[in-house]
């Protein structure tokens, strides 16, 4: 029995193995994979820390550890990723939701009236759009994506979580019913410059290129999005776009050139430029106060 593989022994061994392999957060990754293999939560691993595991359980866990060591993202292996306190289904059809993208949702909520109208572009798993719908149940929230596979998964997430999210397939604003005007537009478009893709981690390179590749300067999709956005916003409405850190200068300039009254950069918890917030002119055409780099 002293040689039995218990949860505690497995976690200790895997933590060391992952650390040597350069896997981020080796202990947490081991816990997530073991909990998934045993179909339990992470707390149960420690409640049953000395319970010997059977061969079928060990086989499931070994397979997950091997695949993670080969570069598969943890979220693809478990099929879930937490975002804004909720578990979203994820698979290789969509980007894995990032903690820093919670800034996009959180900031959007600060501009979305309780009974407002919002649109989430490039919705992917639907994590931002569903979050807006769940946090503002009186609002109407639409979401679009070019990928049929991503939209299918976003629909699953909305149904599982009880989010009233209207999902539309197409490129940016193309599938949006004409005549709608939104209080808030959000987008997490592909923004990695093409030349940087090969230098991304092997885990990120497993994610869909359609959702990563932003063209030579990373702004190919964002440029089209920003140019079209003012026509879809209420007077004084807000556009929020996640961005590459190199876009802290050019993206606000693109927004102002497109007719926005103001554009400012918001930084994430790591201090990196992460988000541009652009305000449409008010009905009277008055300018909104600007800040080139708001750090809150």
Describe the structure.
- This protein has 296 residues and is of the alpha/beta class.
- The protein contains 10 helices and 9 strands.
- The protein has helices at residues 7-20, 26-38, 42-47, 55-69, 74-78, 102-111, 127-135, 148-161, 220-228, 250-257, and strands at 80-83, 86-89, 117-121, 140-145, 165-169, 182-187, 233-242, 262-267, 273-279.
- The strands form 2 sheets. The protein has a 7-stranded mixed β-sheet with strand order 5-4-3-6-7-9-8, sandwiched between helices. A two-stranded antiparallel sheet has the order 1-2.
- α9 (220-228) packs parallel to α10.
- The longest helix has 15 residues, at 55-69.
- The protein starts with 6 loop residues before the first helix and ends in a 17-residue tail after the last strand.
- The model is unreliable at 285-296 (pLDDT under 50).
Give a brief description:
This protein has 296 residues and is of the alpha/beta class.
What are the main properties of this structure?
296 residues; alpha/beta; seven-stranded mixed β-sheet; two-stranded antiparallel sheet; 10 helices; 9 strands; disordered C terminus
